User: Fold ATP-dependent Clp protease adapter protein ClpS from uncultured Desulfovibrio sp.
Amino acid sequence: MSFIPDNQTSGDSRVIVEKKLKEPDRYRVLLHNDDYTSMEFVVSVLCGIFHKTAEEATAIMLAVHQRGVGQCGIYTLEIAEAKVRRVHNTARAAGYPLKCTMEKIH
Assistant:
């Protein structure tokens, strides 16, 4: 809520203007299966970058392995982009082709 200063209104009263705040868009971050990245590396990425417990990371890694894709988390645009970039940089530095993507939640 904001107020319009007195000098912009006609008279002594203040006009209250309400602005509706919109929740930021949310993005799902996904890991994709490949034939080269080790399961141990995927678990370490999930623990290190996404702050998952070992049990959560193992469950997500198994989903990636069995279904071809697994959800790492849901974030705002900037955080999702940063997480995807960190996964790619970390995987490339370790010599893995791990693919990480994001998709907008509708």
The chain has one domain: 24-102. Helices lie at 39-48, 54-67, 77-93. Residues 24-102 form a domain with the Ribosomal Protein L30; Chain: A, fold (CATH 3.30.1390.10).
